[in-house]
């Protein structure tokens, strides 16, 4: 039992270390001494994902602007130009904690989503399979 407790403590220490690294990366990016790529790399140490991106909303252009990401180009284009109109994203915005996993979006809304249709048919690049869409990802678009 002592071995299990030690392993649990190490796992907790690893998570805390990764969280501190994320905080450092975010602070550096905010100060202009680091970049979004370092923030995404640090976030990847905390949250398992197939694809992820960091984007900001541009109210003048009425679209998301990707700062850094690992999605295929077609997925990034969808996130930047159409995600804000996607019915599944409305469910994400309604989320009380502001963060939802794709699989947590109610099924009727998920199936009505153009992103869901793209997942079923695979992204143009062919880089995302239907199974990748059904797993938890760090992004809100699902693919």
Overview of this protein structure:
The chain has 143 residues and is mainly α. Helices cover 52% and strands 9% of the residues. Strand 1 and strand 2 form a beta hairpin. The longest helix is centred in the N-terminal third of the chain and has 30 residues, at 2-31. The protein starts with a helix and ends in a 9-residue tail after the last helix. The model is unreliable at 1-7 and 120-143 (pLDDT under 50).
How confident is the prediction overall: mean pLDDT? Answer: 75
Assign an overall shape: globular
Q: Per DSSP, what share of the residues sits in E-state strands of 2 or more residues? A: 5-15%
Helix-strand category: mainly alpha
* Count of beta strands: 2
- Can you write the helix and strand succession as a string? HHEEHHHHH
Query: What is the terminal separation in angstroms?
Result: 41 Å
Sheet of most strands = 2 strands, antiparallel
* Helical segment count: 7
Strand sequence of the main sheet, in spatial order?
Answer: 1-2
How helix-rich are the residues, as a percent range?
40-55%
Low-confidence stretches: 1-7, 120-143
Evaluate the radius of gyration.
17 Å
What attributes characterize this protein structure?
single chain; 143 residues
What is this structure's SSE topology?
Elements: H1 2-31, H2 36-44, E1 53-58, E2 63-69, H3 73-81, H4 87-94, H5 107-112, H6 114-121, H7 130-134
Antiparallel strand pairs: 1-2
Helix pairs in contact: 1-2
């Amino acid at each position: 039992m002592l071995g299990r407790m030690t392993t649990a403590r190490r796992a907790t220490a690893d998570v805390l270390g990764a969280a501190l690294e994320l905080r450092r990366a975010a602070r550096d990016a905010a100060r202009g001494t680091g970049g979004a790529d370092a923030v995404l790399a640090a976030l990847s140490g905390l949250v398992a994902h197939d694809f992820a991106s960091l984007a900001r909303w541009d109210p003048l252009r009425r679209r998301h602007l990707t700062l850094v990401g690992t999605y295929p180009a077609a997925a990034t284009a969808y996130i930047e130009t159409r995600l804000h109109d996607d019915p599944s994203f409305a469910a994400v915005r309604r989320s009380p904690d502001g963060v939802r996993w794709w699989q947590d979006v109610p099924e009727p809304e998920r199936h009505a989503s153009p992103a869901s249709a793209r997942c079923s048919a695979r992204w143009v690049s062919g880089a995302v399979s239907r199974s990748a869409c059904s797993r938890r990802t760090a992004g809100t678009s699902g693919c």
